[in-house]
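Hi W.,

Here's what went into the run:
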Amino acid sequence: MFENMNGFIQAKNYRIANRTQLRLIVIHTMENPEKPGTAHSVASWFGSPMAPIASAHLCIDDKEVWGCVHEKDVAFAAPGSNSDGFHIEHAGRAAQTPEQWTDEYSMAMLRLSAKAAADVAHRHDIPAIWLSSADLVAGHRGFCGHRDISRTYHKSTHTDPGPNFPFTVYLEMVREGLDALAEDATPLPPAA
Amino acid sequence: MMTSRKPSILIVDDDDITLDIARAAFESAGFDVTTRARGEGTVAEIIQARPDVVLLDVIMPRTRGDTIASIVASAVPRGQTIVLLFSTLAPELLEAKVKQTGAHGFIGKSGDIGDAVKRVREWMRAGKVV
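Here's what came out:
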């Protein structure tokens, strides 16, 4: 459970596993509008009897974080990266412009997402870097979008989170989160 | 023995990841795919190769997709090649651009290229290209 998680709705479609090591944090868009309640709505859909053959670990909008698949389990999110990926769905669409990705709603959502991602990255030693196809093939650790997985493994045709996702800004937010976690983990000097 | 020719498609987009995913998706759907990462030289290629379908990203540096569509509309007989704008722009803007340019239509970019493959198939059936 993440510090800022609003709740957990178990997705219908996922694979029970006992993962102790993750390699990738994969960014998705839900292809739903950026509006209040989108994260809960999509998480509920993943958990409903009408659920698609798809899931993610987290669904996030500008105010809420909902868990759908436990970190140790495998989400059906982006073939090629399911077994070693942690998948985060974001409200919005792959077609968003750079301006739409940096509006108030998106920035609030990205801050929530980066905080959760930093938590995962800290525990699994995943660096805050954006991976290319060559990096993915080489087995490097880091962040990428579903579209990078589609391009690399040719197992899906999804292009989210789109060419304008502000990954530089997002990774900077993740680094801030990682720095804060590293500080918390640093032992205090002995009292004089 | 009858042989069926693969439908041909030219995809023009300045986003290389979109191009790669689109190539894989259309190839697996049975298309003969050519891609271009920029608009320059596209008109000449369309006139020479006469693909069944052209998918044109609109917002590209230098030569935009709507500019290409306008030139092609006046240079290539309408029944030979289906020209579709392929963009993240709002549908009402794309509808206006279709009218301005003489393109056959548009396909909005979604998060799944699979949607574009289905829409192209529909256009081809409507246009009786194959």
